[in-house]
Write a structure and sequence with these properties.
With 320 residues, the chain is an alpha/beta fold. It has 2 domains: 223 residues, Aldolase class I (TIM Barrel, Alpha-Beta Barrel), CATH 3.20.20.70; 70 residues, no CATH class. It has 16 helices and 11 strands. The protein has an 8-stranded parallel beta sheet with strand order 1-9-8-6-5-4-3-2. Strands 7-11-10 form a 3-stranded antiparallel beta sheet. The relative contact order is 0.14. The structure holds flavin mononucleotide. Flavin mononucleotide binds next to β3, β9 and α10.
């Protein structure tokens, strides 16, 4: 049974499930697979590799999917031509996360695309709506990747209350199954955005060994930190930290970041070669607390079908 919400109507999709724009993981194939299954796929524009972005956009345009493109706002602001490149390929929506969207909203709307802003606090939610956001993604601290400190269960309804329903809100962070979707809808969300769950899918562009780690660990095995960002010379503005799987490297340096900075030349070289080699006891696997709910590596289609079947059954029953 389809669940129709303000977000499915705005984006023109069947299911209120959005694929997070995961850097290096949400490529054109995964976005197209999510679209084919009735969800809304958002390409991971990440830190802005122009050649990669152009290739993925061509692929998506050829697939005739309805798709979005996501940017890390503070990073895209350094090369705004990437936004023009994305808009030339007629995406349904542009998603902006981490940084003020104000400078870009007009350009996106003039191109006829919907503006989705991912926010982590009430202050950021108000700022995004004042700038003209059409949809907000309320990202809880449970989320994989960069984020802040608020938990999703209070953040979503508080944003809805504060905004008085002016803009639909999508819940993100820790959602991987139908229980999460049903709960988010009960909180007043008009959909969910999932990253970690889709990372552990067949179509995701991540390494197989990284996907298997996500499948095999528990929700206790992730941590928010700046250790990996320091080691890859990619320090983010406050208040953002990155949630990744715990590994030997993180255990070694967590809480000892100042000392890590003192050894940065050696450590960043070591880190870069571990990434190259796919050694995930040193390199980060970016993933959120939802890892504890993930036990397999299905197709994107099967993930969406399962989440929808489970959520509709729970909502029809009215209880767990
Ligand atoms: C591997 C990975 C990479 C991510 N990269 C980005 C990114 O480049 N831009 C962005 O806006 N969000 C990124 N995120 C965060 C997602 O947008 C989203 O908030 C998060 O995945 C939701 O929580 P979940 O992982 O528990 O589903 C990433 C998340 C993951 C897991």
């Amino acid at each position: 049974m389809p669940i129709t919400t303000a977000v499915t109507q705005l984006l023109g999709v069947t299911h209120p499930i959005l694929l997070a724009p995961m850097d290096l993981v949400a490529d054109g194939s995964l976005v197209a697979a999510v679209a084919a299954a009735g969800g809304f796929g958002i390409l991971g524009g990440g830190y802005g590799n122009e050649k990669w972005l152009a290739e993925q956009l061509e692929l998506l345009q050829a697939s005739k999917s309805r798709f979005g493109v996501g940017f890390i706002t503070w990073s895209m602001a350094k090369q705004p031509k990437l936004l023009d490149l994305a808009l030339e390929h007629r995406p349904v929506a542009i998603m902006l996360s981490f940084g003020s969207p104000a400078a870009f909203v007009d350009r996106i709307k003039r191109a006829g695309a919907i503006v989705i802003c991912q926010v982590q606090s009430i202050t950021l939610a108000k700022e995004a709506v004042a700038a003209g956001a059409d949809i907000l993604v309320a990202q809880g601290t449970e989320a994989g990747g960069h984020g802040a400190s608020r938990g999703v269960i209070t953040l979503v309804p508080e944003i809805i209350d504060v905004l008085g329903g002016r803009v639909p809100v999508v819940a993100a962070g820790g959602i991987a199954d139908g229980r999460g979707l049903a709960a988010a809808l009960m909180l007043g969300a008009a959909g969910v955005l999932m990253g970690t769950r889709f990372y552990a899918s067949q179509e995701a562009a991540g390494a197989q060994a990284a996907k298997e780690r996500i499948r095999d660990v528990t929700g206790d095995d992730t941590l928010r930190s700046i250790v990996f960002d320091i080691s890859r010379h990619n320090v983010w503005p406050a208040p953002f930290t990155g949630r990744c799987l715990r590994n030997a490297y993180l255990e070694r340096w967590y809480g000892r970041e100042v000392e890590l900075l003192r050894h940065l030349d050696d450590e960043s070289a070591k880190y870069a070669s571990a990434r190259e080699a796919g050694d995930f006891e040193t390199a980060a696997v970016i993933a959120g607390e939802a890892v504890g709910l993930i036990r397999d590596l299905p197709t994107a289609h099967d993930i969406i079908k399962r989440v929808m079947d489970e959520a509709t059954a729970l909502l029809a029953r009215g209880s767990m």
